[in-house]
Amino acid sequence: MRFSANLGFLWKELPLPEAIRAAGAVGFDAVECHWPYETPAAEVVKALDQTGLRMLSQNTGRGDSSRGENGLSALPGREGEARVLIDQAIEYATAIGAANIHVMAGNANGPTANATFVDNLRYAAAMARVHDITILIEPLNRYDAPGYFLKTTSHAIRIIEEVGASNLKLMFDCYHVQIMEGDLSRRLSALLPLIGHIQIASVPDRHEPGSGEIDYGYLLKFLDRVGWAGWVGCEYMPLATTDDGLVWIENLRRKLGG
Fold first, then answer.
1. 48 is in which domain, residue-wise?
2. Is 22 within a domain?
3. Which of 32, 43, 138, 161 is catalytic?
4. Alpha-helix runs per DSSP H in the chain
């Protein structure tokens, strides 16, 4: 099982290149991030080259976060701005060799928002395909992201099917899915062909995966049995410092037998 450090939460006190180096120093297999755009791409590439890590994913921009915006791609009337953010993400991902881009839907609802999201995802998938980049969409839970357009895996799958692009996949964040839907093992097994990335954190507090109501020792063994060959992103908020909390990953590796 290959683990990726999500640098949106881990070592967030460090500049992104230093956070990459910190992840490499403690043995993570890859990294992912949220919004890297203030860091020159060349600095990220240098850190990735020095550590031998790869960047798995990044998000499109949120829009105006001071107004509570959490993405623009499902917002009717904001299509031009949404596509600027998509273009920005593709350009940056191409520069640093990122494999995936999470296109953020934003706070919206209703059929017009759905149609807007579908159209913007078709644009994103077409533009990303040229660079061999996969587009991801991620359901977010109603507590952490009230008003967010995409809340459930079933809605995400309907959108993926409507868009009809081979490089559009589901970001299956076990934390969000457990809160909104539960039944993780059956959902993972059923949706496996459509999943592009998996993320983990404890539930309900979103801390280190070694605590809370999800037994990741069981769940990750289950993923291995059903044939998951991708990465597992560690997107959790450390209870103290990142380094102080890393004992969880050694405990989990022992449960997994390696």
1. 7-12+28-212+222-244
2. no
3. 138
4. 16-25, 41-51, 79-96, 111-129, 153-163, 174-180, 184-191, 216-226, 242-245, 247-256
| pLDDT at residue 56, rounded to an integer | 98
User: Is the pLDDT score of 104 beyond 60?
Assistant: yes
Respond yes or no: is residue 32 known to be catalytic: no
Q: What is the CATH number of the domain that holds 74?
A: 3.20.20.150
Unique residue bearing structure tokens 């600095």:
43
214: Cα separation from own chain's centroid = 19
pTM above 0.90, yes or no: yes
235 is catalytic: yes
Q: Taking the CB of residue 258, how many other CB atoms lie within 10 A of it?
A: 6
Report the alpha-carbon distance of residue 9 to residue 255 in Å, rounded: 24
CA dihedral 231, 158, 137, 75 (to 10 degrees): 180
Give a yes or no: residue 217 inside a domain: no
Catalytic hit among 69, 181, 235, 250: 235
* Omega before 193 within 30 of 0, i.e. cis: no
Average pLDDT score over the chain: 96
pLDDT in tens, 196-249: 999 999 999 999 998 999 999 999 999 999 999 999 999 999 999 999 999 999
